[in-house]
Specification:
Layout: H1 25-40, E1 45-47, E2 57-60, E3 70-74, E4 77-78, E5 88-97, E6 101-107, E7 115-121, E8 123-129, E9 135-141, H2 142-155, H3 166-171, H4 173-185
Antiparallel strand pairs: 1-2, 2-5, 3-4, 3-9, 5-8, 6-7, 8-9
Bound molecules: zinc ion.
Length: 186
């Protein structure tokens, strides 16, 4: 089932996600609905907050993006074809950020029509759990590293506008105000 994507101004986007200690049918159904919602919106990542649930749950799929490469190691082994490892459904992810950063263009399904260059770590390590209760380690660079940082921020109530330069944020200020007003009316 496709879910409604919450937009900027919705307080749930600022809520820190609760840890998921037990995967039940509700969590499995939510993850499935999030994947459907993300794919329908042509997104590469979606956090539970974006569909109204303050939980440590995110889904990602960068396999369709060919012009922005990624690398991925899963449990220490390189993944040659990213499509075989996608989509990812991650519970309770913890991220370690590499020191080196680079700017790169980012958008967000909760901020339609807004994109900006954001500085992110080039490489990250993420420990997470899967729906099957398996603990996994992902080492990523490129677009996947960026998407993981963006989504894990969501799980902690952090939005990409918080990481924009003040100039970029100022350039989007009227659109951001309009979005907040539209959300308040819902
Ligand atoms: Zn986002």
């Amino acid at each position: 089932m496709k879910l409604t994507i919450r937009k900027y101004g919705d307080p749930v986007l600022r809520a820190k996600g609760k840890r998921i200690d037990e995967v039940d049918d509700n969590i499995r159904a939510l993850a499935g609905d999030m994947l459907e919602t993300m794919h329908a919106a042509n997104g590469i990542g979606l956090a539970a907050q974006q569909v109204g649930h303050a939980l440590q749950l995110t889904v990602l799929d960068v396999s369709q993006i060919e012009d922005r490469p990624s690398t991925m190691n899963l449990n220490g082994r390189p993944v040659a074809d990213l499509a075989t490892a996608m989509p990812l459904v991650l519970l309770n992810p913890q991220v370690r950020l590499g020191e080196a950063t680079e700017p790169g263009s980012e958008g967000c399904l909760s901020f339609p029509e807004i994109s900006a260059d954001i500085d992110r770590s080039i490489a990250v390590e993420v420990e997470a759990e899967t729906l099957d209760g398996e603990e996994i380690l992902i080492e990523a660079t490129g677009l996947l590293a960026r998407a993981l940082q963006h989504e894990i921020d969501h799980l902690n109530g952090i939005l990409f506008i918080d990481r924009m330069s003040s100039a970029a944020k100022a350039s989007h200020s009227s659109r951001l105000r309009k979005l907040q007003k539209e959300t308040a009316k819902l």
